[in-house]
Amino acid sequence: MQVFSDGRLLVGEEGGRYWFADDHTNSHFHELKTLAKFTSLTVDGTTLYGIEDAATAAYDLVKGEGLWISRDGGREWRRYQQRG
């Protein structure tokens, strides 16, 4: 379980399913939809950061691999692109 800076909860389970509180009372939740199956998901303030990577070290790329960011509670995700 993780807490957003506004008090809403993010609850997860093994297997990559997560539920996000609809408001700060944390009495109603909706399942978080993601564009990739994250191997890790964390909260910083009100921003979600998800990482999609292979569960074990491999040379094969994983579809959707990389860092994904949502600033609106998981409604929209964008893949982080390093600026060069």
Helix/strand-derived category reads mainly beta
Q: Helices and strands, in N-to-C order? A: EEEEEEEE
Oligomeric state of this protein: single chain
User: How many domains would you count in the coordinates?
Assistant: 1
**Major sheet summary line:** 4 strands, antiparallel
Order of strands, widest sheet: 1-2-3-4
The overall pLDDT average reads: 84
Low-confidence stretches: none
Apparent shape: globular
Spatial gap, N to C terminus:
35 Å
Q: What fraction, in percent, of the residue positions are helical?
A: under 10%
Instruction: Tally the beta strands.
Output: 8
Strand content: 35-45%
Work out the helix count: 0
Task: Give the topology.
Elements: E1 2-3, E2 9-12, E3 18-21, E4 29-31, E5 40-44, E6 47-52, E7 66-70, E8 78-79
Characterization of this structure:
The protein is an all-beta fold and 84 residues long. Helix content is 0%, strand content 37%.
Question: Could you write a compact summary of the structure shown?
Answer:
The chain has 84 residues and is an all-beta fold. The chain has strands at residues 2-3, 9-12, 18-21, 29-31, 40-44, 47-52, 66-70, 78-79. The model has no long low-confidence stretch (mean pLDDT 84).
